[in-house]
Recover the amino acids of this structure.
């Protein structure tokens, strides 16, 4: 009977698996391979994640314990808030708002921005 041989996806090294589901020659190779894969995803998402985190922290600081506040658009932009990144939309009192995690924002007249903490 000929033993099955497999190629390690990380190193390309041939090895004989000890289990049916074994894909890597060693646990160290498996961990390193998966860490590389996760790092690639983190790198691809980092610009958006950093902008969202910054937006969240700005709103958290400005809102404090308040549920609803209004700010001028230029004030928020001066703080570093980016209106180009969000986590989606949500309805509040039958109006569609942009969301940044648990905060919602809506453009009003005269460049005013209404912020609602959920």
């Amino acid at each position: 009977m000929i033993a099955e041989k497999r190629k390690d996806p990380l190193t390309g090294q041939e090895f004989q698996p000890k289990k049916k589901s074994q894909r890597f020659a060693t646990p160290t190779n498996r961990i390193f391979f998966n860490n590389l894969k996760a790092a690639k995803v983190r790198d691809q998402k980092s610009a958006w994640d950093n902008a969202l985190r910054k937006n969240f922290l700005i709103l958290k600081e400005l809102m404090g314990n308040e549920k609803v506040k209004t700010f001028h658009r230029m004030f928020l932009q001066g703080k570093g808030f980016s209106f180009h990144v969000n986590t989606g939309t949500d309805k509040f009192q039958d109006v569609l708002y942009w969301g940044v995690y648990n905060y919602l924002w809506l453009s009003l007249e005269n460049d005013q921005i209404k912020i609602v903490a959920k």
